[in-house]
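WARN  no MSA supplied for this record, continuing single-sequence
INFO  ligand: zinc ion
INFO  echoing inputs
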Amino acid sequence: MKISCNIIRDLLPLYAEDLASEDTRALVDEHLHECEDCTNVLNTIKQGTPVPVERAPESLNKVKKIIRDNHKEFTAEKKAEIMKEIGDVLWYCATLSHDLGYTLDEVAQTNVDKLRSRMERQKITGSGDNR
Ligand SMILES: [Zn+2]
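INFO  complex generated
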């Protein structure tokens, strides 16, 4: 079976992060050797913004510590600290959105629409990303 570009592109993030098995790596190498489009996609991934999954909880941890240590008192200094963390998260969100071809307005509007739809369908509580 010939491996399609779509399959290769599913594998490229693992390949780029050096997390693919030896067999996968060999398969991707072979494909890249003869496919310029996928090679370009790989280069884009390699240059891409690293997704800082560890950033968001940092601001939440500051909030948690205030609740634990400061008896829920948000001083001006603490608020300013959290605001700076939110700024970092926002910057990463803006960069990631841009890289994916969305504006932050589109991301925000999609989220508002999603939450409104859940509310109308009485699905605001519970779990799952696609309620
Ligand atoms: Zn390809």
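The chain has a mean pLDDT of 81.
INFO  checksum written, moving to next record
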